[in-house]
């Protein structure tokens, strides 16, 4: 019996190209993105002549971090006193995951979990992952390297003031057989790294209904209905680093999980050299850098004001 892979993938390829094109267009501007991005998968990928595959859409829409104005929402024209969640809107998320502040604000990054899964050997030791950040198109700086045993979810790996309209992107990879895996970012077209806001449905929720187990580090951020539960000024970044096929049972978006929080005021009690975790405006009160080291430039405030 003849088989046709093209029959199963043609529609998916066209849809993916259309969405990626829209994403590229949206990422060239700091204005609100005009269209969602996504991918389409087909199962099975090999079908007999005369049969049809099942097509599944994975679509991400633009999102806002915080809704309404401080003290309540308006009537759509900037007036009014009620509605919204009372949280000041500070940014938009340009899918799949670029964060674009709408006003000057501080960006804080904490790693939640690390654990790429080998689909062929799910009980194998988890390899170390690498987390990086890029602000306004700069080179990606490393924020974390290690395994789950190195994760301290309460530790602020990065605090930086970002200007309105500047882009904040994240990327991840892991060590496999002594070499780096591909580096996927919040701009990757295959939705390897996606940003979720409060109330979003976790994109791999169907995988947790018998096919995969939700990692313990993810559970505090996802409720029993697979809805993301974080603050209105936070973004949960979830990364799939080991798989590229969305139909794989191991494509579950928990290889590396990151919490990003936004605030108008500095989250510390000063301005400090926060790339290394030290508040240099209050010497002696910081807890050291990620490895407990002394701040090498402790007398110099390099924070953008």
Give a verbal description of the structure.
Keywords: Signal. This protein starts with a strand and ends in a 42-residue tail after the last strand. The radius of gyration is 21 Å and the shape is globular. The N terminus and C terminus are likely disordered. Helix content is 7%, strand content 29%. The strands form five sheets. Strands 11-8-17-16-15 form a five-stranded antiparallel β-sheet, with no helix packed on it. Strands 9, 10, 12, 13 and 14 form a five-stranded antiparallel β-sheet that branches. Strands 5-6-7 form a three-stranded antiparallel β-sheet, with no helix packed on it. It is mainly beta.
The level of helicity is under 10%
Terminus-to-terminus distance: 68 Å
Strand content bin: 25-35%
Q: Which H/E pattern describes the elements?
A: EHEEEEEEEEEEEEEEEE
Report the total helices: 1
Give the rounded overall mean pLDDT.
Answer: 73
**Unreliable parts:** 1-34, 68-86, 269-305
Lateral strand order in the biggest sheet: 11-8-17-16-15
| Rg over C-alpha atoms, rounded to the nearest angstrom | 21 Å
What class would the helix/strand composition place it in? mainly beta
Largest sheet: number of strands, sense, barrel closure: 5 strands, antiparallel
The general outline is globular
Total count of strands: 17
């Amino acid at each position: 019996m003849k088989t046709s892979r093209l029959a199963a993938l043609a529609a998916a390829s066209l849809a993916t190209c259309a969405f990626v094109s829209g994403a590229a267009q949206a990422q060239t501007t700091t204005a609100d993105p005009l269209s969602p991005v996504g991918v389409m998968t087909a199962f099975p990928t090999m079908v007999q002549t005369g049969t049809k595959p099942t097509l599944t859409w994975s679509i991400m829409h633009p999102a806002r971090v915080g809704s309404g104005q401080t003290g309540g929402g308006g009537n759509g024209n900037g007036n009014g006193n009620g509605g919204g969640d009372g949280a000041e809107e500070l940014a938009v998320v340009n899918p799949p995951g670029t964060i674009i502040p709408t006003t000057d604000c501080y960006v804080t990054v904490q790693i939640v979990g690390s654990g790429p899964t080998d689909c062929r050997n799910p009980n194998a030791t988890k390899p170390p992952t690498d987390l990086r950040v890029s602000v306004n198109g700069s080179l990606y700086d490393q924020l974390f390297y290690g395994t789950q045993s190195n994760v301290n979810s309460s530790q602020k790996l990065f605090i930086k003031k970002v200007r309105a309209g500047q882009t904040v992107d994240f990327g991840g990879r892991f060590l496999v057989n002594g070499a780096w895996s591909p580096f996927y970012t919040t701009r990757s077209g295959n939705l390897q790294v996606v940003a979720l806001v409060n109330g979003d449905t976790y994109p791999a929720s169907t995988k947790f209904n018998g096919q995969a187990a939700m990692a313990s580090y993810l559970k505090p951020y996802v409720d029993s209905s697979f809805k993301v539960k974080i603050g209105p000024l936070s973004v949960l970044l979830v990364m799939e680093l080991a798989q590229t096929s969305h139909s794989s049972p191991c494509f579950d978006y928990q290889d590396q999980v990151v919490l990003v929080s936004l605030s108008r005021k500095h989250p510390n009690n000063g301005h400090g050299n926060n790339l290394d975790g030290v508040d240099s405006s209050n010497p002696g009160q910081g807890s050291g850098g990620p490895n407990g080291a002394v701040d090498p430039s402790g007398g110099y405030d390099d924070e953008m004001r």
